[in-house]
Amino acid sequence: KTFSLLPKLNRINHHKSRNSIDKTHTPTSAIANPIVKSLLTKYPPLSDGINVILMQVRFPNLAEYSGEWNPNTDERHGRGVQVWSDKTTYFGMWKDDMINGLGKMILNNGECYEGEFVNDKAEGYGTYVNNKGCEYVGSWKDNLMNGNGKMKWKNNNEEYEGEFVNGRMNGKGRFMFKDGSVYVGEFVDDKIQGKGIKTWPNK
C-alpha cells in the first residue's frame, strides 16, 4: 500500500511579496491592531540590535502586512502578520524581509503549518495538518518532511513513525494499520520495501 502526502507549503513562495517601489506605508500601533499585539506578546523580539517600528503595508498584489519593520532597509523584520489576496495567512517572525523563525502559516484551503521557518520555507521542527484529517509532527527541510517524524491519518486511524526523505516515508519506521496490525522495518518512497516484520493483533 502506498501512502503519499506531499505538503503544499511550496505555495508560500508563490504568494511571496517582494519589495516594490509601489507599496505604501502607513504607521500603526500594537494597540490599534489586536493581532499584532498578540504577536508581540507571544514571541520575543529579535535580538539583533535593530530598532524596528510598527507598520501597515499594502503591496501591489494586494497582500497586506502588519507588524515590525526595519526602517533602514525598508523591509519586514521582527514580529508580523501577512494576509495574501487568496486569504493565505502567516503569523510570526520575519527577518530581512523573509519568513524566518517561529510562525504559523494557514493556507486558504484550511491546511496549516506551525513551527520553524528558514528563508520562507518550512525548515526545522513543525506540525502540519491538512484538510483531510492527516497530521504530521516532526522535522522539515526545504518545505518537505525530512528526518524523523510522526504521521497520523485520523480518518482511518493509521499511523507511521519513523524516517522521511523529501516528503515521503523513506528509511526505517513503524506503521500501524487500521486493523491493528503493525509493520516495523524499511520503507522506500512511501512503500514497504526491504527488511521488516509485520505482526497481527490477537483475535
Taking Cα atoms only, what radius of gyration do you get, to the nearest Å? 20 Å
Structural class: mainly beta
Poorly predicted tracts of residues: 1-8, 14-22
**Helix and strand sequence:** HEHEEEEEEEEEEEEE
Count of β-strands: 14
Q: Tell me the overall shape.
A: elongated
Mean pLDDT: 85
Major beta sheet, strand line-up: 1-2-3-4-5-6-7-8-9-10-11-12-13-14
Number of helices: 2
**How much helix is in the residues?**
under 10%
The termini sit apart by: 23 Å
| Proportion of residues in β-strands | over 45%
Describe the biggest sheet? 14 strands, antiparallel
Characteristics:
disordered N terminus, mainly beta, 2 helices
Concise account of the structure shown:
With 203 residues, the protein is mostly beta strands.
What does this structure look like?
With 203 residues, this protein is mainly beta. The protein is built from two helices and 14 strands, in the order αβαβββββββββββββ. The chain has helices at 11-14, 34-42, and strands spanning 24-27, 53-58, 64-70, 75-83, 89-95, 98-106, 112-118, 121-129, 134-141, 144-153, 158-165, 168-176, 182-188, 191-199. The protein has a 14-stranded antiparallel β-sheet, covered by helices on one side. Strand 8 and strand 9 form a beta hairpin. The radius of gyration is 20 Å and the shape is elongated. The two termini are 23 Å apart. Residues 1-8 and 14-22 have low confidence and may be disordered.
